[in-house]
Write a structure and sequence with these properties.
By secondary structure, the protein is α/β, with parallel strands linked by helices. It is built from 14 helices and 17 strands. The chain has helices spanning 122-131, 144-147, 172-179, 181-194, 209-218, 239-247, 267-279, 309-315, 356-359, 372-376, 383-391, 395-400, 411-415, 422-442; strands at residues 24-26, 33-37, 47-48, 55-56, 61-64, 73-74, 79-89, 92-101, 158-163, 199-205, 225-230, 262-266, 285-291, 299-304, 325-328, 335-337, 350-354. Helix 3 packs parallel to helix 5 (209-218), helix 4 packs across helix 5 and helix 4 crosses helix 7 (267-279).
Length: 443
């Protein structure tokens, strides 16, 4: 029987257009401008390490900070720094380094391959991961070296590699598991070097049989790594739900997986660790699903970080019709964007180019008190109660009713027959309250 968690939903997967399409590499054209935001992660923004007019090489570090909760940024091309200025990215305008690609892809001297990792100390491995700028590539963007450095009082016994990819439309994790399963297993072995007596579990939803077969073959004979098949259900890939499904442990309110002895990393994050430790390559590329009824060639594309979305679309064949809506990410947790003049960043999982029919959302109506949102909320919350708190502008009641435990998965809005904008309202107030707490902590 497949592992699973309580509640959740089963949205239409919409993966058929790209799930069997192999990853295709797209390189930015000579003369194109790439945009490297200095904040592509949770934590402190980087400061630029380069100047306008400076020549930079592929893999060269162009932004960093002394803050622990930070991940440096590297150039994914060789070329000239054209400017350092604010630039639009998903949901924000961020100080960015603009580099004109010379088309030569000349590598920086820091890129050096290693024959193995066993001789490296834990501190050296963590240092390599940090210097490579690796963050959670499943969308969260939490610096990986921080996640792999739990406090001494947090005893970790389970490392879960998240290959669920439960968000509709997106298929990049599925393809990397099929095409790069060996790197995932080796990357997990590198992580387990940091976790004494830890067990590695690669969690894959049951709707990905090719990925399951590839991973089982790659980890055959390795005693401390196994593949766990989890039920196809949304949001199976969220950390707390996945930890519960695999271990039956409950992450406490306001807590993290480390509080119950677990660490969770996305499959592509683990591949990035393999590339950094063994190939000496910092995080410079992202596998992105481009799909939807408006794009000519839906598929999975390996793109250089910094590539503008409009350039990527052009290389992928362009549009067959003007999209009615563009969503960065999946339809459940993604963000609508109004411009394709934004770069691919470390947390870009996919981009949906939807036709008017695909993008249609029925008008919002009055709540009919059916309780569907309560029955399906994976966090065990009462979305109608939280929405009432928001309408009354009672933020204290929102917090008291555990609104901060919302994982913003969108299940409540999806399942609501009245199409109430529950998730959107909760997301807005939740982020305001989290920002208040963050500012209070700094005071």
């Amino acid at each position: 029987m497949a592992f699973t968690f309580k509640r959740g939903i089963h949205p239409n997967e919409q993966k058929q257009c790209t799930e069997n399409v192999p990853i295709h590499t797209l390189l930015p054209a000579a003369g194109s401008e790439l945009v490297f935001p200095l904040l592509q992660h949770i934590g402190a923004p980087c400061k630029p390490l380069v100047e306008k007019g400076q020549k930079v090489l592929l893999g060269e570090k162009i932004g960093d900070s002394e803050a622990f909760l930070c991940a440096p940024v590297h150039s994914s091309v060789s070329g000239i720094v054209k400017d350092i200025c604010p630039h639009l990215t998903v949901g924000a305008t961020v100080d960015s380094v603009i580099i004109e690609n010379d088309g030569e892809f000349t590598e920086h001297e820091s890129i050096k391959e290693r024959s193995g990792f066993q001789e490296l100390s834990k501190e050296q491995v963590l240092g390599i991961i940090r210097e490579a700028g690796i963050v959670g590539l499943g969308g969260a963007g939490f610096p990986t070296h921080v996640k792999l450095s739990p406090p001494p009082d947090k005893k970790i016994d389970t490392v879960i590699v998240n290959g669920c990819e439960c968000e509709p439309y997106l298929t990049t994790d599925n393809r990397v598991m099929i095409e790069e399963s060996q790197r995932i297993v080796i990357g997990l072995q590198i992580i387990l070097k940091l976790i004494e007596s830890g067990t590695g579990i690669i969690a894959v939803e049951s709707n990905k049989p090719q990925a399951i077969d590839a991973l089982k073959k790659s980890c055959a004979g390795i005693p401390n790594i196994e593949v766990a098949i989890v039920k196809t259900k949304y949001p199976q890939g969220c950390e707390k739900q996945l930890v519960n499904a695999i271990t039956k442990r409950e992450v406490p309110s306001g807590g993290l997986p480390i509080d119950v002895g677990c660490i969770v990393n996305n499959v592509d994050t683990v591949i990035a660790i393999h590339r950094a430790v063994l190939r000496g390559r910092p995080l410079m590329r992202k596998v992105v699903t481009l799909t939807g009824g408006a794009i000519k060639n839906p598929g999975n594309y390996k793109a250089r970080i910094g590539t503008k979305l409009n350039d990527l679309v052009e290389q992928a064949g362009g549009f067959k019709t003007n999209p009615a809506k563009i969503v960065a990410g999946g339809p459940m947790m993604g963000v609508a964007v109004f411009d394709t003049d934004i770069p691919v960043i470390k947390t870009t999982e996919g981009v949906l180019f939807l036709t008017a029919e695909e993008a249609y959302i029925p008008p919002e109506r009055n709540c009919i008190r059916c309780g569907s949102c309560v029955e399906r909320c994976p966090s065990g919350l009462i979305p109608t109660e939280l929405n009432a708190d928001i309408l009354k502008e009672d933020s204290e009641a929102f917090v008291r009713h555990n609104g901060l435990d919302c994982i913003e998965c969108g299940s409540c809005s999806y399942i609501c027959p009245a199409k109430r904008r529950l998730s959107q309202a909760i997301r807005t107030i939740r982020r305001v309250e989290l920002k208040k707490r963050q500012n209070k902590g700094k005071a």
